[in-house]
Amino acid sequence: MRSRAIYGCAGPVLTPAERSFFRETRPWGFILFARNIENPGQIRALVAALRDSVGDGAAPVLIDQEGGRVARLKPPQWQARPPAARFGALFQDNPETGREATYLNARLIAHELFSLGINVDCLPVLDVPAPGAHDIIGDRAFATDPPTIIDLGRTQIEGLLDGGVLPVMKHIPGHGRAGADSHLALPRVDARIEELSASDFVTFRSLDSCPIAMTAHVVYDSIDPQRPATTSPKVIRDVIRGEIGFDGLLMSDDLSMKALDGPLAARAKAALFAGCDLVLHCNGDMDEMKDVAGEVKELDGLAAKRSELALAQLRVPDAGFDPLRAQARLDELLGGAA
């Protein structure tokens, strides 16, 4: 039985201590960052070593490969990809062109990830940026209007799934109004519940069939002024599972971000108690991972069922996909919009 955790590792090669820790704790999955990446062969070897440590050749391996500012795979070895807002602008000019470009871009991202053995991408970003908010979301969002975000978010999900990669929609129930970067501080949102429901929540509600979602480390004063969504039973029960209706696999954002306080063990316990199915710890710090592992139980019950249903959506990509032709067409579409 696997545990309800996703961990990072410290470098480009798995250390004996990491291998032993992962073998003992058997996390649900792993996540890669720039510190783990050197070249394609090295990534494939690292992914294989991670999976071997838990005895599962298909264990989930995640990455944040959005394009724009958030991309762990970078040139010259990998294609630079535009931020989501570029596709939103294209959509505003011509919806059909915007959808085609969004699909091709997502399909090409998935092709690159699949070739490396990576099978989960933390994408799409479904947050709705609000005027005056911190730019931590900014051009990572397709647009500032929910209908465009929903349309292109759905298209992006389809492109990833067709390429053999599971999408993770983020940051549920919405990070777009946050006045701070949750990597560095705890954002608070004072908007009324009616405003949140009419704008922020609607993108997630419309795409609630996405197999996995990642929580926002954001306090919503009108719902739970004491706790951010990640550790709030009320937000998860009443909003994420309730009003939004998301019944898929729910993972926390990174527990080591400064939006959360207290010991890592307490953060993990609070997130799981609140209703997260999985907790995410990214920085590869062994002492912190051990603290998290002390509070993480086996994946069972409804969380295990949600995991099973999410992983069942993994598919083998169409062997007829031509990445060179797809990239040429994408370049044509984006060039036409320049």
Write the layout of secondary structure elements.
Layout: E1 3-7, H1 16-25, E2 27-32, H2 40-54, E3 61-63, E4 65-67, E5 70-71, H3 84-93, H4 95-116, E6 120-121, H5 146-162, E7 166-172, E8 188-189, H6 193-206, E9 212-215, E10 219-220, H7 233-243, E11 249-254, H8 264-274, E12 278-281, H9 286-293, H10 301-311, H11 323-337
Parallel strand pairs: 1-2, 1-12, 2-3, 3-6, 6-7, 7-9, 8-10, 9-11, 11-12
Antiparallel strand pairs: 4-5
Helix pairs in contact: 1-2, 3-4, 4-5, 4-11, 5-6, 8-9
Task: Give descriptors for this structure.
338 residues, two-stranded antiparallel sheet, TIM Barrel
Overview of this protein structure:
- It is built from eleven helices and twelve strands.
- With 338 residues, it is an alpha/beta fold.
- The protein folds into two domains: 43 residues, no CATH class; 253 residues, Alpha-Beta Barrel (TIM Barrel), CATH 3.20.20.300.
- The strands form three sheets. Strands 1-2-3-6-7-9-11-12 form an eight-stranded parallel barrel, surrounded by six helices. Strands 4-5 form a two-stranded antiparallel sheet. A two-stranded parallel ribbon has the order 8-10.
- Helix 4 runs parallel beside helix 5 and helix 8 crosses helix 9.
- It starts with a strand and ends with a helix.
- The model has no long low-confidence stretch (mean pLDDT 96).
